[in-house]
């Protein structure tokens, strides 16, 4: 097998792999072939000779005493040699030394050649799949785009993304979306699996909150460069979403930058999401104030945070005028569900008891919120 290093370089260049990894795959192919055509129990090692650009196949065998029990065991015998037999190769060997006996696959004819060809194909394919697996494993939550190649009977959409085929299950499509062969679509990588039978499997999603975050980063330069950070995101795909934003620069308005002039930026994202309404909220570490903002467009009077012992069932009790309750709940409960998802609190609504509370002017409520912000800041 001459000039194996040149073959490794050619395969690496063609497949976009590292030469060192290709060489390791070739060495593994030689060892497996030797075990298959020579002896399964031999301890083979493939050694690279850079001078001749070849791979030498050697069997490593340990020298033991003539009466050692290991020589009598059919399973262990191939790995050991008696000292008398060993001295036929080298008269200087001692007990415990390891001999390396060279073998040549060429001596085993076409059977060995065909077996080696299959093993090389197998190991190179596994190497390619491992490289792709690691590449896309690191892309989980990252936006990718591709062309639709097939839609099956379960409405799963198969998409050609660079060098792999990914699948967008029906459950991960926005309600009302339909794709046909040839369409170009965007999605985020949701899951990457490796299966021995089917190889690498990549699942995409358009319903994940991460998809909305990636679209915003694509559309809003301030988010892409870190001047605005998406602190939290919650969405009911195809219906509505709430995004909590925070600015890292004193001269950048997080909400204004994300919405854009006349809403041009947020509308572009909404259009990609089949008209999904997106509420942009300024994030704050003050839980009462943050809850009040997430309840928009409802105007609330008071927020009380009730902590639970386990920290998993914290509650936000919101007091609000009766005429604001429907706005707080939203159509089919969407607004309150999103607010709960965004804040992490179980939200309970309580109507104001007195007429004066019900008739509190909007300006007074705004002033109370500003006062609360000033107190904590």
Provide tags for this entry:
single chain, 377 residues, alpha/beta, N Utilization Substance Protein A, Chain:P, domain 4, OB fold (Dihydrolipoamide Acetyltransferase, E2P), GMP Synthetase, Chain A, domain 3, 3 domains, 5-stranded mixed barrel, 4-stranded mixed beta sheet, 13 helices, 15 strands, elongated, disordered C terminus
Describe the structure.
The chain is of the alpha/beta class and 377 residues long. It folds into three domains: 4-136, 2-Layer Sandwich (N Utilization Substance Protein A, Chain:P, domain 4); 139-205, Nucleic acid-binding proteins (OB fold (Dihydrolipoamide Acetyltransferase, E2P), Beta Barrel), CATH 2.40.50.140; 286-377, GMP Synthetase, Chain A, domain 3, CATH 3.30.300.20. It contains 13 helices and 15 strands. The chain has helices at residues 4-15, 19-37, 83-86, 109-137, 209-219, 221-224, 254-259, 264-272, 287-294, 325-329, 334-343, 355-358, 362-376, and strands spanning 44-49, 54-64, 80-82, 98-103, 143-151, 157-161, 164-168, 184-195, 199-205, 228-236, 240-247, 277-282, 302-306, 315-320, 346-351. The strands form four sheets. The chain has a five-stranded mixed barrel with strand order 5-6-7-9-8. Strands 1, 2, 3 and 4 form a four-stranded mixed beta sheet that branches. A hairpin with a 5-residue loop joins strand 5 and strand 6. Helix 1 (4-15) crosses helix 2. The longest helix is centred in the N-terminal third of the chain and has 29 residues, at 109-137. The N and C termini lie far apart (74 Å). The model is unreliable at 354-377 (pLDDT under 50).
């Amino acid at each position: 097998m001459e000039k194996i290093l040149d073959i490794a370089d050619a395969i690496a260049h063609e497949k976009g792999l590292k030469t060192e990894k290709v060489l390791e795959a070739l060495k593994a192919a030689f060892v497996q072939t030797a075990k298959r055509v020579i002896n399964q129990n031999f301890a083979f090692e493939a050694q690279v000779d850079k001078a001749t650009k070849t791979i030498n196949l050697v069997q490593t065998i340990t020298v033991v005493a003539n009466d050692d029990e290991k020589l009598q065991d059919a399973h262990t015998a191939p790995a050991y040699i008696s000292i008398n037999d060993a001295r036929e190769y080298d008269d200087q060997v001692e007990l415990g030394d390891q001999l390396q006996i060279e073998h040549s696959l060429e001596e085993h004819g076409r059977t060995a050649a065909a077996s080696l060809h299959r093993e090389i194909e197998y190991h190179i394919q596994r190497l390619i799949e491992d490289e792709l697996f690691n590449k896309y494993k690191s892309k989980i939550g990252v936006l990718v785009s591709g062309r639709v190649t097939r839609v099956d009977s379960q409405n799963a959409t198969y998409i050609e993304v660079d060098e792999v085929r990914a699948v967008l299950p029906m459950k991960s499509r926005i309600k009302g979306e339909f794709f046909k062969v040839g369409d170009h679509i965007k999605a985020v990588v949701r899951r990457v699996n490796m299966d021995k039978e089917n190889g690498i499997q990549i699942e995409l999603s358009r319903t994940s909150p991460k998809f909305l975050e990636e679209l915003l980063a694509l559309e809003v330069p301030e988010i892409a460069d870190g001047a605005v950070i998406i602190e939290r995101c919650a969405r009911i795909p195809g219906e509505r979403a709430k995004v909590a934003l925070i600015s890292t620069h004193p001269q950048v308005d997080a909400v204004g930058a994300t919405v854009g002039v006349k809403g041009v930026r947020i509308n572009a994202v909404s259009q990609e999401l089949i008209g999904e309404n997106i509420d942009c909220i300024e994030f704050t570490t003050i839980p009462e104030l943050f809850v009040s903002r997430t309840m928009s467009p409802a105007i609330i009077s008071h927020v009380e945070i009730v902590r639970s012992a386990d920290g998993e069932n914290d509650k936000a009790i919101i007091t609000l005028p009766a005429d604001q309750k429907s706005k707080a709940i939203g159509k089919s409960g969407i607004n309150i569900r999103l607010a709960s998802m965004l804040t992490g609190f179980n939200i309970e609504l309580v109507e104001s008891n007195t007429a004066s509370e019900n008739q509190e002017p909007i300006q007074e409520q705004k002033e109370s919120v500003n006062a609360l912000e000033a107190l904590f800041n």
